[in-house]
Every structure is written in C-alpha cells, then in structure tokens.
TrEMBL record:
It comes from the Bacteria. Its EC number is 3.5.1.1. Keywords: Hydrolase. This is asparaginase.
C-alpha cells in the first residue's frame, strides 16, 4: 500500500521555469516537463508528485483574476485526490495571488504553498531547487495523518509565510519576501521548524467552498504631498468604480484640506468603498489616533488595520463580488483567514 502523501504541483510560469532567449537575452517561460527533468531530486522526496501546467505559462506580471479562478478550480477538482498543493508562480505578483486564493478557497484544510525563484532553475546559482523541494516537503508534512499546514502560504528562501501577509520587497535578493506584521510560520534550516501557535485551522465540519467571482472595479491610490483635487476627482469618478484602497501615511493619516475630505465623503455617500491602509512597510491603521485621520473615520472610510496592500485589494475584489454582504465595513474589518489583526 502506498501511504505517501500525494502532492499536486501546479505550474503557472515565472522565472523558476524560464530560459534565456538567445536572440534577445530576455527571459521567457518554457515547457514544464523540462522543469521537472531539471530537478531529478524530486524523485527522492517521500511523497508522490503529479503535475498540472497552465497551457501557456506566464510571467506573473500578466497575472489576472481569471487565472486565480483557474488555480482555484484546479485545486477544487483535485482537492480530494491530493494531500497538498504547490503552485509555481512568478515572484512579482505572488503575494497578490496568495492573498486572492486565501479568500477564494474558503475552509481549505490542506496546504496550498506558492513558491518560485529569483533565478531560473537552469542557472548555476539558482534558488529554485531549494524553494521547490522544501515547498513540496512542507506541503507533504503530516501529523496524525493530517496536514500540518492547512492554509495558503508562500515559501521563499528558507521561510514559510502566511500568503496573505506577504509582500515582495526585493527584486534582487533571494530573500525577496517579507511578512511585515506577523512572524513567518516556519523556517527551514538543518531541521524544519514550524511555529504551530501561528497556524490557522478551520472547523473540520466545514466543506471547502470555492468562490470564483472577483470584482475588477477597484483601484489603489497612494496619497502624496501635493496630490491635486482634479486627480482625486478624476479617479473617484471613474465609471463603475466600486472600491479603492487608499494608501495613507503612518497610522492612517491623510491631508485634512476640505476639498480632499469632501471629495472622498461625496464618493463614499454614493456607495464607493474606501479602504485605509498605511503606505509604511509595517504597522497598522488607527483612525482617530491623530486629528489627520479622525475625519476619515467620520466620513465612513473603512480601516484596513495592519493588512498589506496586496491583501487589501484582493479582499476588496472578493467582498465586492459577494452577494450576501450586509455590512461591508464590518465585513472588511473582520479577518477572514488571518490576513489582518482582530
Ligand atoms: N518576472 C518574473 C515573474 O514574476 C519574476 C519572478 O518569477 O521572480 O514572473
């Protein structure tokens, strides 16, 4: 009998599976079978691996919500058959995809680990092998016949993070990701150390529910000294715009000029959802802490607390597409799957 955990490896593209185009010198995605061939070590792992490849692997800068739906659907169709899932993904938008999937795959009780690399798998100094092999090992980790990790995570350069807490912070370093507001969930050294106190576990009786609708009527607006009224007005008047993530200063502060607050207030009164996140690389929004945020709270701006921009925009896309949201502010300010503080 084969008791080895079964892992489905889903290949979407990214540097990990790219080769240099000899003519242009640019990196482009190549065939997935060749990728597996380049890592014979995969055969040594204590798990069985099956693969699924996107028909046209992409650079993750081309990632779109339809592809999140495709990834979620592949997981849904194969959920019973496999013990864990590893998604190979370009690092550029990996935090967005990890965040989106965490909302779309409600009640997952199996590991879904996104990983990729900074250098292609064929490169001598590649980080791809370690990332891929350890991501698979983590997806295959079991205790009492149950997966140790039961959520959407991102594995990169020896660290496992909650996916919806991450941001890409370096285009060069192997250590390309950070989880600014919560510690990493596991670290790979000589041993794999898992911080079990941080892991999310869903009620065993709840079935996996896959949500496939995401609104695209959203945008991210970063506040900066000198932002003009005509700019804010033009953005807030975009036809069909349903929500924006407003990147403010510090603990959620923004200009107090009346045109700024009035323009926002008018849009909110017409139904626009405005989410306040900080443009600082860590910390939380506390509207009302300074005078410069008190009024934002009063006009109905929603607090993103300590959420990342990546998780905020995908949570907004997700919640706007849900039919049964009664109180949007309450729904956004309540954590769904560990993406923000309570
Ligand atoms: N441009 C690449 C991508 O995101 C970078 C990478 O994979 O690291 O697909």
């Amino acid at each position: 009998m084969n008791n080895k955990p079964a892992i489905l490896l889903i290949y979407t593209g990214g540097t990990i599976g790219m080769v240099k185009d000899f003519k242009t010198g640019a990196l482009r995605a190549f065939n997935f079978d060749q990728l597996v061939e380049r890592i014979p070590e995969l055969h040594l792992l204590e798990c069985s691996i099956e693969t699924y490849s996107f028909e046209v692997p992409i650079d993750s800068s081309d990632m779109r919500p339809e592809m999140w739906v495709q990834m979620a659907s592949v997981i849904e169709e194969n959920y019973k058959k496999f013990d864990g899932f590893v998604i190979l993904h370009g690092s550029d938008t990996m935090s967005y995809s990890a965040s989106a999937l965490s909302f779309m795959l409600e009640n997952t009780r199996k590991p879904i680990i996104l990983t990729g690399s900074q250098l292609p798998i064929g490169d001598l100094r590649t980080d791809a092998k370690e990332n891929l092999i350890t991501a698979i090992q983590i997806a295959a980790l079991q205790e009492n016949n149950k997966p140790v990790i039961q959520e959407v995570c991102l594995y990169f350069e020896y660290k496992l993070y909650r996916g919806n807490r991450t941001s890409k912070v370096s285009s060069e370093l192997f250590n390309a990701f950070t989880s600014p507001n919560i510690p990493h969930l596991a670290e790979s050294g000589v041993n794999l150390r898992v911080n079990k106190a941080l892991l999310e576990y869903k009620n065993e009786t709840l079935p996996l529910t896959v949500h496939k609708e995401m609104s695209r009527n959203v945008m991210i607006l970063k506040v900066f000294p000198g932002i003009q009224q005509k700019v804010l007005k033009a953005i807030l008047n975009i036809e069909d715009l349903e929500g924006i993530v407003l990147e403010t200063y510090g603990s959620g502060n923004a200009p107090t000029e009346s045109w700024f607050l009035n323009t926002l207030a008018e849009a909110i009164a017409k139904g626009l959802k405005v989410i306040n996140v900080t443009q600082c690389s860590s910390g939380s929004v506390h509207m009302g802490k300074y005078e410069t945020s008190t009024e934002l709270k009063e006009i109905g701006v929603i607090s993103g607390k300590d959420i990342t921009t990546e998780a905020a925009i995908t949570k907004l896309m997700f919640l706007l597409a849900q039919k049964n949201v009664v109180d949007f502010k309450e729904a956004f300010e309540t954590p769904i799957c560990g993406e923000m503080e309570l």
